[in-house]
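Supplementary Note 3. Input sequence used for the single-chain structure prediction.
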Amino acid sequence: MGFAILWPRVKAEEPLAPDCFRFVTIRAGPKILSRKNSLLSKTHAMKSVARLLLLFFWVTAMPKSFAAATVSPALSPEESMRRIHLSSGFRIELAAAEPLTIDPVAIDWDAAGRMWVVEMADYPLGLDGKGKPGGRVRMLEDTDGDGRYDKSTLFAEGLNFPTGIAAWRDGVIVTAAPEILFLRDTNGDARADSKQVLFSGFLEGNQQLRINGLRWGLDNWIYCAVGGHFRGYGAATKIKSALTGEEISLGSRDFRFRPDTGEFEPQSGPAQFGRNRDDWGHWFGTQNGNPLWHYVLQDQYLRRNPHVAAPDPVQQVIRPMNPRIFPASPNEKRYHSFEHADRFTSACSGTIYRDNLLFPASSEMHAFVCEPFHNLVHHEVVTDDGVSFRAERTSAERTSEFFASEDPWSRPVMIRTGPDGALWVVDMYRYMIEHPDWLPPEGREELLPFYRQGDDKGRIYRVLPISAERRKPLRLDRLSTPELVAALDSSNEWQRDKAQQLLLWRADRAAATPLKSLATQSKNPLARLHALCTLDGLAALGPEVLLPALADDHAGLRENALRLAEKSSASEVIQAATLLANDSSAKVRLQLACSLGAWTNRQAGEALARVAIRDYGNSFVVAAVMSSAIPHAQTLVEKLIAENGPTLQTYSESLYTLALGLNNRELLNRLLDPVLAPKDGKFDASHFSRYNAFLQLVNRRKASVDTAPNASIYSAAKTALKGGPDQFAAAALLTRDPVSRAEAMRILAARLKPSESLENQRATIATLADTADPAVPQLLLQNWSTTGPETRAAIIETLLRREPWAFELLSSEAISIGDFDAARRNRLLKHDSPRVRALASKLFNQAIGSNRAKVIEEFRPALQLIGNPTHGREVYLRACVICHRRDDQGNDIGPDLRSVVEHAPEKLLTNILDPSLDVQPGYHAYNCALSNGEELYGLISAETATSVIFKFADGSMRTISRKEINALRSSNLSLMPDGLENGMSKQDLADLIAFLRAR
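The predicted structure, written as discrete structure tokens, is reproduced below.
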């Protein structure tokens, strides 16, 4: 499920006795600390300490199995609810609990107001511990209207770890990897007797990381999160539509589908558990330590232009990532510390609240994120930030949470805006929410009796203002067509979405007239929006409705009107759309840049150029412009050249790529003309650099171009090579000239000296590497003794990208073992080339494929040592800082180490010494062979239809066009290397663990 990777609450416990009390929760009697962490009376504190000491001696004498059984008890639904702390002004109500619902993880409501619950009763390892499916779907009803469900019907069972549900027509759609199912009752006995497979082929693996979601989009598609099986699991995933027979490559992307037709499309992603939108169609996702991000760019636009690599489509909304959280103090304290973890580790179900009941006076959006490991629901206020959003806590919740339970069994895993306007919280209620796959071996064994504790429980709450009366939802199934149209005029998301669905299912032509009236006359912009989207679904959307929407006062209406206008060929609609190139809203201009690709006339191309020039500094707008560029390439280039500003330089590489991809020589010559034929006839460094960048691109794409017009610029470069301010730019260009290459490379190599800026040295290394010349290793290593550490790292990383260079690097007498960090030693020891592996093994005096289990046992005594966090920080700076960040030090390659504060010493030891034992999603290393002969090794940071974004061990990023890739394969290993223990004593390891666990 999406609440992966959830680190066990019990693993926060420090053992009282190293061998008999690991992973055990201690009952410490009365609280020693208050909610504000202030001490109670000294007498009370002394009594509590005395109890702890007595308990310590009692537990250490117990058998391990008896000690492990000392766990906090489950609480009744009413008692657990009393342990929930809410923000001031709100109250909580119990809507459903066991036995009516058990193990709930997702909910939805149908038009009759019944709540459908998907229950993952088979979590974590199946009903029999061996994968036996046991998921269920229940239908809950409130028969007396008191707000609490009192009737439960078991609709379906035996499902394979279900994660998501959506009420659809006369049944429900359920995500249960490897399938998406449509379940129906055809004989009226309230049991599913029809099971239709809609789609199949989704990856299974860890039950926390499977497809989930099922959320209705304004565009009349259903959207899903792909889960955590990506970038190491799902790169080659093929999804089959049962209705169409089509197979679609999904990769590491989310998706959308139409249940009635079997249409299926990848979407930007991936989200782990929960993909939700706001009222205006902006989608948001979540993953573990990243509580909320916005999908700025949509995959259907990016894949239109296969020639240009798109950037990462995601923008983090809550910054910095992995922010501080404030759990409620539980009754049961840990012996080693009276504090709690203070970072997200299981963020899931990031949701935009979509009604006005909770915050009637607020014009801003409110986001909520579940954090089941810490038993809380986090709240942020979301505001516009250009093409995306940003979020921050409210002033009243600077050091608290909107919903925080003292009950350690409380596990909020999903939140939704209900039909009544309340915020609904789904509490799976388990002692252990973490999956055993993420426990160290010893932890798995000791916690085995507790894997399913709570599998007979589950709670669903609603949160609403103290002073608010509970709303009674409309029975939409009883409404006529005109009444359903009127129901679109509502503040409530469920009512609008469900009414829209019902109108589409009825396909009543009589709905068109009242819908058009609502779209043009309603004072509620959301009613106007849904009327437009419903008309679109009914194929009844014409210029008479689109034109007012394109000029609407509300930016969200203009933005959606542009999307809807893409299907129109009416000249007045296209003209009205192009007028929005100067719109005051950045989101409207971004959407326009995407939508203009739907039209081919010059007017649309000129509007695209206006957006390109105005917003050239925004990478998302640049990507959107290029997604629409194919039908407007000539106009776009013409306008950018005429503008004669910085815009052309921003777009030049993408436009070169497009021209090469289209094999459009006329367009290419037009782009190169200002470079190869300057108006004054004089060439300078800017011309040399711009032409060299073009040739680098040609080299990467293995394209062929006519070199005849280049004689003049080469001649000028040869003159500049003799000296002067343009010498290095000229040398970079002349590395492309076989006659001048050797001298040019020698001049460039001389630039690798401490007096040059690091930026210049990195550029020099990249230029030399791009030549693929056999002399490159010798030139880069010739002044090794005077080369600084960052330049050394860049040189080593460069030489590792070609097999002959890697072998020469290891053979060089200038290099010593100490020049290779653990990550690069590991990479060389596992190199594809036998001769490189053998030489690396000899140089590093380390056997290939060393036994990690043996190493772990060798260093296990470190767990008995008292660690020194101060010295542990020094070990961290020496061994870990290249890949991990902690506070303001290190690189964002591996997980932020603030997220491991509560990890047990046993788990930290195992992860440090055997990093590939459990690799978090997104941290599998990949080998990527490019068409120009380069071999890349790193993480896939993001993936789109046209690109793969690589992150390397030094923290640098590179966007790779799919057209450049010859082969891409997962190593099935962590990027974090084996062998960190080399040069590390057991005390060093104990100190490092102490530092990682320090607050």
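Residues 184 and 194 are 5 Å apart (CA to CA). The radius of gyration is 30 Å.
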